[in-house]
Write a structure and sequence with these properties.
This protein is an alpha+beta fold. About 20% of the residues lie in helices and about 40% in strands.
Length: about 120
């Protein structure tokens, strides 16, 4: 399996991770025509040093939301047990951006926590 993401969105996500550091950030990814193109940041979220929380009731009903993204302020982009539990409940594709928040520090996972390849589209 491979996901496709716009280069502009990827750069924006990297910048968000840097801006929120040393806290984590999180959001939901919108897909259009098989390519992730937008991120939604839900209002009233809690973005802490070790976790994030947001009320999914504030998430709009949008069938184009096909994934999530969050940052890890540490160097590991591997999903924690809490991440895997969330992945299994939300489904779709999940990006983790690890410190130092560069393109090579991003990994994508499916709802089972298995890594998938990322293709950057210009």
């Amino acid at each position: 399996m491979k996901i496709k993401i716009r280069g502009e969105l990827l750069e924006y996500l990297l910048q968000l991770a840097k801006d929120f550091y040393p806290n984590e950030f999180g959001g939901f990814l919108r897909e259009k025509n098989g390519i992730f193109e937008e991120v939604l940041i839900i209002p009233k979220g809690y973005f802490g040093k070790e976790s994030i929380y947001f009320d999914t009731w504030l998430l709009p009903h949008d069938e184009n939301i096909k994934g999530t993204v969050h940052s890890h302020p540490g160097p590991s982009p591997r999903p924690s047990q809490a991440d895997k539990k969330f992945f299994s409940k939300f489904g779709g594709v999940h990006l983790i951006i690890a410190y130092p928040f560069e393109a090579w520090s991003i990994k994508a996972y499916n709802s089972n926590g298995l890594e998938v390849k990322i293709e950057i589209i210009d």
